[in-house]
Design brief:
The chain is α+β, with helices and mostly antiparallel strands. It has one domain. It is 30% helix and 36% strand. It has an 8-stranded antiparallel β-sheet, sandwiched between helices. Strands 4-5-10-8-7-11 form a 6-stranded antiparallel β-sheet. Strand 4 and strand 5 form a beta hairpin. The protein is globular and about 55 Å long.
């Protein structure tokens, strides 16, 4: 797929930068497809603050779907890994999506709170929470399946998602009465804030490559999306480093990272699916890597990529 090939082959990296025991490389914008000024989007947090966006339980109380009400004059962007708190139980968005202005769409989700289901009318709405840390997003992406071109045939291996949540909580000794991933973010909030600090991206930055152990994870976003997600992404990288424990990252260096990205661009199979509302979702796979993304009008809104690291380097949660 030309857009993926072009983008991965021409990425420019700045760094390394160190975040606790992780290594980060900033992805700098290069070329027309990254730099072109896009139309604006509204994020969940903004929409809720302005009272123009709501996330609600379906009337039927379906675990695998919630409903997005976008009453704003902008396109609502929900990233893969958006953790939504409250409702009948906490959920996570499993496919990145763009919901058109003044519209209502059903959004595929997975449960990230095993031991609660409260169907009282007062708890039917969700509030903004966090973006899942990279290895959790990878686990979600790998456990989503869908019928070709059919958005109604999306399914998630819920048991594997719960298992990942359980291992993540255990890795950081988090006590959660309802086995919710949100308790990890709440109970380690001081650590997350301490390591994240006042980090801000360069105006040309469009994403990061994060390395923990020998695991390499790339996040690339459209400019207007990245600037709004930057702080939450950084929080996710901090959580990733906490879960990794005391194992230090092995810095592969720019040349090795470029070799990885060029290899993915040249050797991967790309599968395209119709989007939940606007755009189209993609899945990228080869023997060494796995990735997912969202395209709109032939341009990347977001793209995440994960290498298949050896198990011995993948930390407590990965095994």
């Amino acid at each position: 797929m030309k857009i993926i090939t072009d983008t991965l082959s021409h990425i420019e990296l700045q760094g390394p930068y160190f975040l606790r025991n992780s290594v980060l490389y900033a992805i700098e914008g290069q070329g027309r497809r990254v730099h072109r000024k896009p139309s604006g989007v509204i994020m969940l947090e903004e929409g809720m603050r302005e009272q123009t966006v709501e996330l609600r339980e379906l009337a039927s109380g379906t675990v695998s779907q919630i409903q997005a009400h976008n009453h704003s004059a902008s396109t609502l962007y929900l990233p893969e890994g958006e953790i939504c708190k409250a409702g009948y139980q906490d959920r996570v968005v499993v496919l990145a999506c763009l919901v058109d202005k003044s519209s209502i769409k059903e959004i595929p989700v997975a449960c990230v709170e095993r031991d609660r289901w409260s169907s009282t009318s007062s708890s039917a709405n969700f509030k903004d929470s966090a973006i899942a840390f990279p290895s959790f997003r990878e686990s979600i992406s790998r456990n989503v399946s869908r019928g070709k071109g059919d958005t109604s045939a999306i399914s998630v291996d819920q048991k594997k998602i719960w298992n990942f949540v359980d291992k993540s909580l255990a890795a950081l000794n988090i006590h959660s009465q309802t086995q919710s991933i949100n308790d990890l973010y709440d109970q380690r909030a001081d650590d997350i804030a301490r390591y994240t600090g006042d980090i801000s991206g360069n105006e040309n930055t469009r994403g990061y490559v994060c390395i923990t152990g020998k695991k390499m994870m790339l996040d690339l976003y459209r400019p207007d999306v990245f600037c709004k997600l930057h702080h939450k992404l950084m929080e996710g990288y901090v959580v990733e480093s906490l879960i990794q424990g005391e194992v230090g990252a092995v810095d592969p260096g720019k040349d090795r990272l470029k070799e990885w990205l060029v290899g993915v661009s040249q050797e991967s199979e790309v599968t395209r699916f119709g989007g939940i509302d606007l755009g189209e979702n993609i899945k990228v796979e080869n023997g060494s890597s796995f990735g997912t993304g969202l395209l709109l009008d032939g341009e990347i809104v977001n793209f995440s990529l994960y290498n298949n690291a050896d198990r011995e380097y993948r930390g407590q949660v990965y095994n």
